[in-house]
Amino acid sequence: MKQDQMAWVWLILAGLLEIVWATTMKLSNGFTVLGPSVVTVLLLVVSFGLLAMSFRTLPAGTGYAVFTGIGAVGTVIVGAVLFDEALTGMKLVFIATLLIGVIGLKQVTGGESA
């Protein structure tokens, strides 16, 4: 796999881990529950490590926007499914907008490097 393709793999994994550590952060109840607190910190470190690895090849602005987009969309969905957080029509519109932005950034960053 080429270096730029690996950078996207690292970035997507980092974003997916962001969803998990944000979820465990919620479960940590403000870092007052030990297990979820430890998992949150460990996954946060791994997630940011993967993000940093992707920055070796990808532009920082694109990488960070995609990272936060994946995390935001995923965390909203997890919140709705696991925590009964409201998923209104307007939230769905803005999730779609974020997804379009993330996909668009991926498309226009094809051969661009850091």
Descriptive overview:
By secondary structure, this protein is mainly α. The protein has one domain. It is 80% helix and 0% strand. It is built from four helices and no strands. It has helices at residues 3-27, 34-55, 60-83, 89-108. Helix 1 packs parallel to helix 3 and helix 3 (60-83) packs antiparallel against helix 4. The longest helix is centred in the first third of the chain and has 25 residues, at 3-27. The two termini are 18 Å apart.
In short:
Helices cover 80% and strands 0% of the residues.
Count of domain modules: 1
- Largest sheet geometry: none
Radius of gyration: 15 Å
Tell the overall outline: flat
Mean pLDDT: 93
Strand % is under 5%
Helix segment tally: 4
Distance between the termini: 18 Å
- What pattern of helices and strands is seen along the backbone? HHHH
Number of DSSP E strands: 0
Output the structural class: mainly alpha
> Percent range for helical residues?
over 70%
- Indicate the low-confidence ranges by residue numbers: none
Pfam family, one: Multi_Drug_Res
GO molecular function: transmembrane transporter activity
Organism: Exiguobacterium chiriqhucha RW-2
Transmembrane segments: 32-52, 64-83, 89-108
